[in-house]
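[Meeting: bench + compute handoff]

Bench side (C.D.) handed over the final construct sequence. Compute side (W.E.) agreed to return the predicted structure before the next meeting so the bench team could plan truncations. Sequence as handed over:
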Amino acid sequence: SKAPQFDQQKAENDLSKIAVVPNPYVGAASWEPSNATVGRGERRIYFINLPRECTIRIYTISGRLVETIEHNSTIDNGQEFWNLVSKDGMDIAFGIYVYHVDAPGVGKKVDKFAIIK
């Protein structure tokens, strides 16, 4: 048997697999009632393929910090959701957002996603 080990190169390469789904997110107004026949449900996006521990920072395209999410999970759960609410408790506007994933000891990834109407 082989002892578990951390492969730094694989971890760095896996950062390129981080993504946001759905992207673009087709939003509806928060005041619209949830309709069982349409299946809208709660407004949320998912960050997928995340490393076990990381910090996700979401910014407007002009660079204003919208939200910070701490991700800490088991090795087999590399996803985190965001309910599209800012750190100030307000629903976010439609537009382009930039996310920055910082995984200590592994690396960083910067990408973008869109919220459209």
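W.E. noted at the follow-up: The mean pLDDT is 84. C.D. will use this when planning the next construct.
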